[in-house]
Amino acid sequence: MNEITESRKPPLATTGILGWLRMNLFSNWINSLISLFVLYVLIQFIPWILNWTIFAADFKYNFNGAEITDRTMCSRVLDPENGGACWAIIYVRFYQFMYGFYPRDEVWRVNLSYIMLAVAVVPLLFDKFPFRKHFLKFTYVFPVIAFFLLNGGLGLESVSTNKWGGLLVTLVLGCTGIALAFPLGIVLALGRRSNLPVISMMCTLFIEFIRGVPLITLLFFGMVMLPLFLPEGVNMDGLARVLVAVTLFQSAYMAEVIRGGLQAIPQGQYEAARSIGLSYWQMNMKVVLPQAIRISIPSIVNTSIGLFKDTTLVIIVGLLDLLGIGRGALADTTWLGLAYEVYFFVSLVFFIFTFAMSRYSLYLEKKLKTGINMGAD
Amino acid sequence: MSEDSIISLQNVNKWFGDFHVLKDVDLQVKKKERIVVCGPSGSGKSTMIRCINRLEEHQEGTIIVDGIELTGNLKNIDSVRKEVGMVFQQFNLFPHLSVKENITLAPIWVKKMPKAEAEELAMQQLEIVKIPEQADKYPGQLSGGQQQRVAIARSLAMKPNIMLFDEPTSALDPEMIKEVLDVMIDLAEGGMTMIVVTHEMGFAKTVADRMVFMDEGRIVEQAVPEKFFNNPKSDRTKLFLSQILNH
Fold it and tell me: Helix H segments across A51-106?
């Protein structure tokens, strides 16, 4: 009996590293050719890029050991053949890249906000986080604390937003935009599916209008036209006006993403929720939305990454985000010509954030797939 | 309506677009009565019982459940839904909640019951449907029969006076049908008012006080099971029974 039921190991050639290579890279001659070509390109390219960015690069000192203070001291200007990147421009202007023109004496407030942001966001992202419930209370009050910390008030010296810049502006726009657009998007998505024609029409109109317009147009709208709608004498902060535009833009996209998730929820879920007596809001909050949002996570993260990158457009209306500070640095005559370094650094910072977001979305998808089998059949 | 009816449908008509699904339906159900509704597919059985807790809206006639008339009045609808439990063909458990959370959801949010009390209640209901050991699993980890029993427990947790069953065993594999029917028989013996849409004629013979046969949106025949099965009056009932019993 054992002879029949005993399971055997799979053939050696299909497992392990060799098996993987055989199956994935060298399964037929076209694949093998492509694999070899890609390998060749990588071998040519990787050492060169490592050399340029790290081994032959200047950080604070050039190859003579002198501290770099302008472009003429960069190794790659002195010796174009062998010199690598000149990171000194980033080093010298690092403060600006991170904080813009935030007063140095007050910069601890930004740093504290960054740390608090991490404390507020991490428990939100991982449901196994110890004492998560207590941390989440902090997450709710964090925006208020951050507002007073960054902006001033309550005894702290006021720092006008036109001094904010660099990563600070990028993060404020990205985080606030995403955080505000999420609930707004949910309301819009529910509204668009509402049985009440007036509400449904208003939501549809809003969503379609915002989606039909480029973000830049909305930014101009926020900058130029929003003040016209405000009562006389009320002066809205420039950053706040841009935030309104960014949030409206993002909420329209978020609404469509969540609406897609809502459409995937079977009618039976609504009926079951209704039949046990749940009200409209209870049904949505407890039964429908948790499932719909779960389905939409990849798209939610996708649009969030999109927004995070789109915040660079604020340069058009005169805000200096990370990219804006980079362009400012390039315009400085002492550092002329170091565009590679600046754009590389700016890209790297953006990449770190967006890559983290995309990894997190993958992690969530995997977790939810293993935990719960959505839908009975 | 007669005085002792807990559910009363009078001259109920309903259309899906131009399609006339319910035609002058009259049905009186007494307290603790067990009704089995049968008929060919598309005959309006499901639609009729879905009108009783207003998952479907009827356009003409009156439906009165436990003294409350079903109209557009949302308050009335809410109070009727608290009285009436419903079990669906596709179970419709909430896949993102554990078995226990599925059952405690409505007691906690609709009846504002404290969580601990609701969980105790959930365990009692799971005992009734004989699967207390599955309390912490998710619906996707259960068999169809187990899921349907959880769905019954979820309805029972709201302590309804009336239970509606919409083809509760039609989506189940044959070996699981019995475990669900057993639970339903227990319920019937406990004195629950039940309206069951089903093709399980064995079940009907054991528990039904009355059989209701529907065809093309009309109630064609109502009778006690013995009469219904042995001596059906209308030709359509005869044809239906011959098809369903001799397959």
Answer: 75-78, 88-92, 94-99
Q: What angle do CA A203, A207, A212 make, to 5 degrees?
A: 150
pLDDT category at A363 given cuts 50, 70, 90 is confident
> Does a structural domain hold residue A192?
yes
Q: State pTM to two decimals.
A: 0.83
Q: Does B55 touch chain A (CB under 8 A)?
A: yes
In this structure, which amino acid lies at residue B162? I
CATH number, domain with residue A342: 1.10.3720.10
Residue B101: predicted pLDDT: 94
Whether the per-residue pLDDT at B150 is higher than 90: the answer is yes
**How far away is chain A from the Cα of B177, in angstroms, using its nearest Cα?**
17
| A288 belongs to a structural domain | yes
List the 191-220 stretch of B: residues with Cβ below 8 A of A.
none
Instruction: Annotate A175-236 with DSSP letters as a single string.
Output: HHHHHHHHHHHHHHHHHHT-SSHHHHHHHHHHHHHHHTS-HHHHHHIIIIIHHHHSPTT---
Domain that includes residue A248, residue range: 89-103+159-373
Instruction: Tally the domains of chain A.
Output: 1
CB within 8 Å: A377 and B81: no
Q: Is residue A334 part of a domain?
A: yes
Mutate to test the interface with B, among A195, A275, A282 (most CBs of B within 10 A): A275
Q: How far is A45 from chain B (nearest CA, A)?
A: 47
pLDDT at res. A376: 35
pLDDT at A42 over 90: yes
Q: Beta partners for B34? A: B194
